[in-house]
């Protein structure tokens, strides 16, 4: 699998908007760009991307655009091209999100832990971001595929993630959406570098500057994001959540609704009693606790995390397998995330803009008996209604993913 098509910042904001999180991003009321001819990157001349690149097979699809395999006609280099449809950029804020993503990718230095950005192009219909092709798969998929997964392996992954955070902060950037799906392996080799691939939610900051908009993915949000006053410390919290998941297979703050997740985050109670925590080293637990410190002023910085004794001595961390339970949990968690992305794809591909803006209408259409719950039967009928061309095998994959999610939540 190549680079998964990651949408602009508004995708994550729409996740929050459609949830029960309080105080969702009211900037969405900004004037619409519908039916307007817009220029996203005014400093670039408009050009047909196919004059410079051969656009090949589709690699991934999101709400706002599609990622393709592409080949540089001059150098013959194989790359990835994320094409963001202007038709899907419905507000001036959406446009600014894309513009800022390009600026940040140009601003960050080339590094083995960040996907290499080549250039941005714009034509009448889309903005195209051309970048390095990462074909080694997602982080959790690689872990699940391994038969031997240990604390030592988790420490190596965490070092890379925090190095990305440190680089961002050193260059005046808050990532704002650290999560496992935003890290891909460059290639399929065992020693492949792990790379951060998505900066669609990232933002420039100055020392002491605070932000208030609620952005990101619910499981990984720091408490100060929910309180609408935050700075770069939120990236350390998100990395701490990833570390907790890496070590036990489930998020530290879990609930059946996103409102419940938010409440759990604000309570801040971390469970170190479930398996396999009793057998995990004190050093790993200590680092998790310090990264998930509710007070951002007391939370470790990226530099301090990298200097923590557990990471400094990563090669000496226990090399005992964490067990099949952890790998099974990671697989289930990954499947649920994949199901959500698939659902967003269906919404993006087969519903009108008005329906995208009103997910409740979609739910009501699928919930045929109006009992407030979408059954497996109703889900299957709804998928086939909105995408009659969907193969039976794809429908079944949805059903299996939902079944796993339900089992996991119970």
From TrEMBL:
Q: What class of enzyme is it?
A: transferase
What Gene Ontology terms describe what this protein does at the molecular function level? ATP binding; calcium ion binding; protein serine/threonine kinase activity
- Could you tell me the keywords of this UniProt record? ATP-binding, Calcium, Kinase, Metal-binding, Nucleotide-binding, Phosphoprotein, Repeat, Serine/threonine-protein kinase, Transferase
Annotated binding of ATP, by residue:
82
Q: Entry's Gene3D superfamilies? A: EF-hand (1.10.238.10), Phosphorylase Kinase, domain 1 (3.30.200.20), Transferase(Phosphotransferase) domain 1 (1.10.510.10)
Q: Does the keyword Calcium apply?
A: yes
Q: Which residues form the Protein kinase domain?
A: 53-311
Q: Which SMART domains match?
A: S_TKc (SM00220)
Question: By its UniProt entry, which CDD domains does this protein fall under?
Answer: STKc_CAMK (cd05117)
Q: Which reaction does it catalyse?
A: L-threonyl-[protein] + ATP = O-phospho-L-threonyl-[protein] + ADP + H(+); L-seryl-[protein] + ATP = O-phospho-L-seryl-[protein] + ADP + H(+)
Stored Pfam families: Pkinase
Please name the PROSITE patterns in this protein's record: EF_HAND_1, EF_HAND_2, PROTEIN_KINASE_ATP, PROTEIN_KINASE_DOM, PROTEIN_KINASE_ST
What is the protein's given name?
A: non-specific serine/threonine protein kinase
Q: Which organism is it from?
A: Lithospermum erythrorhizon
């Amino acid at each position: 699998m190549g680079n998964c098509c990651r949408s602009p910042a508004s995708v994550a904001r729409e996740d929050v908007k459609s949830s029960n999180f309080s105080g969702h991003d009211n900037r969405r009321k900004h004037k619409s760009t519908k039916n307007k001819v817009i220029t996203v990157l005014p400093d670039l001349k408009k050009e047909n991307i196919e004059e410079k690149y051969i656009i090949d097979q589709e690699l991934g699809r999101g709400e706002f655009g599609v990622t393709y395999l592409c080949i540089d006609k001059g150098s013959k280099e194989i790359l990835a091209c994320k094409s963001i449809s202007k038709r899907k950029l419905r507000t001036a804020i959406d446009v600014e999100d894309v513009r800022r993503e390009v600026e940040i990718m140009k601003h960050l230095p080339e590094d083995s832990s960040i996907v290499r950005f080549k250039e941005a192009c714009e034509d009448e219909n889309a903005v195209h971001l051309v970048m390095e092709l990462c074909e080694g798969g997602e982080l959790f998929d690689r872990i699940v595929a391994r038969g031997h997964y240990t604390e030592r392996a988790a420490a190596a992954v965490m070092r890379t993630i925090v190095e990305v955070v440190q680089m961002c902060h050193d260059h005046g950037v808050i990532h704002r959406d650290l999560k496992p799906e935003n890290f891909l392996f460059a290639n399929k080799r065992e020693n492949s570098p792990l790379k951060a691939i998505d900066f669609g939610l990232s933002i420039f900051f100055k020392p002491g500057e605070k932000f208030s908009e609620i952005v990101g993915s619910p499981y990984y949000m720091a408490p100060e994001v929910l309180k609408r006053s935050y700075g770069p410390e939120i990236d350390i919290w998100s990395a701490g959540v990833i570390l907790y998941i890496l070590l036990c297979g489930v998020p530290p703050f879990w609930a059946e609704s996103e409102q419940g997740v938010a409440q759990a985050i604000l309570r801040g109670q971390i469970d170190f009693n479930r398996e396999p925590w009793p057998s995990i080293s004190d050093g790993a637990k200590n680092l998790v606790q310090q990264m998930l410190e509710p007070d951002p002023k007391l939370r470790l910085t990226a530099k301090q995390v990298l200097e923590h004794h557990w990471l400094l001595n990563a090669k000496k961390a226990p090399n005992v397998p964490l067990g099949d339970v952890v790998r099974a949990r990671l697989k289930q968690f990954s499947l649920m995330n994949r199901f959500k992305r698939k659902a967003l794809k269906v919404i993006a591909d087969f519903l009108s803009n008005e329906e995208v803006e009103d997910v409740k209408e979609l739910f009501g259409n699928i919930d045929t008996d109006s009992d407030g719950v979408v059954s497996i039967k109703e889900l299957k009928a709804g998928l086939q209604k909105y995408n009659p061309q969907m193969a039976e095998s794809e429908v079944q994959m949805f059903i299996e993913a939902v079944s796993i999610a339900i089992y996991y939540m119970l």
